[in-house]
Amino acid sequence: MKMILFVCLGNICRSPMAEFIFKDLVKKQGLEKKYTVSSAGTSNEEVGNDMHYGAKDKLDEKGVLYSKHKARQLRREDYNKYDYIIGMESYNIRNILRIVGEDKENKVHRLLDFTNNPRDIADPWYTGNFEATYNDIVEGCKEFLEYLSEGKNKYQKSFLA
Ligand code: 4NP
């Protein structure tokens, strides 16, 4: 069983979208027993809040199921609990490392570094563009799952944390 934690800033837009999109992919491939998936934010700003309505609307539109969400802040102990801590952008990665400390076990990664086009995922809280964010997250989640399942050597750790 691999433990996966998606992380963004507020834990109400990108990381819960990634959590539910990844769970959907895992379910469709019958891999539920292999992965435990959750999400958290680096800030405490939205703690206790449900997913943003823009994120929910986008998941509804795409037919991705989700359950009630309660935003929580990333904790130092999460580093030991999870095998993969997946951030959305370089800024995120820096904040993650500030909370968990040094990434001694190479668990912290940026989602789109698993793709052939490594880049940040824009924050729809600011851009309002949930479609672009959804597409980026789907791309990242598919490649990440492929990497986990097949150990494909596509991954480039290109962000500068
Ligand atoms: P997220 O978006 O990191 O994708 O969940 C944000 C949500 C809330 C805030 C910032 C980003 N905020 O400042 O409260």
Task: Explain this structure.
The chain has 161 residues and is of the alpha/beta class. It has a single domain, classed as Rossmann fold (3-Layer(aba) Sandwich), CATH 3.40.50. It is 40% helix and 13% strand. A four-stranded parallel beta sheet has the order 2-1-3-4, sandwiched between helices. The chain is globular, with a radius of gyration of 14 Å. The structure holds 4-nitrophenyl phosphate (4NP). 4-nitrophenyl phosphate binds next to loops.
User: Looking at this structure, what is the CATH superfamily?
Assistant: Response regulator
Q: Class in CATH? A: Alpha Beta
Structural class: alpha/beta
Helix content range: 40-55%
What is the count of β-strands? Answer: 4
What is the arithmetic mean of pLDDT? 94
Largest sheet: 4 strands, parallel
Number of contiguous helices: 6
Summarize the structure.
This protein is α/β, with parallel strands linked by helices and 161 residues long.
Could you outline the blueprint of secondary structure elements for this entry?
Elements: E1 2-8, H1 14-28, E2 35-41, H2 53-62, H3 78-81, E3 84-87, H4 90-100, E4 108-110, H5 124-127, H6 130-150
Helix pairs in contact: 1-6
The chain binds 4-nitrophenyl phosphate.
4-nitrophenyl phosphate binds near residues 9 and 11.
Kindly list the characteristics that best describe this protein:
161 residues, alpha/beta, 4-stranded parallel beta sheet, 40% helix, binds 4-nitrophenyl phosphate
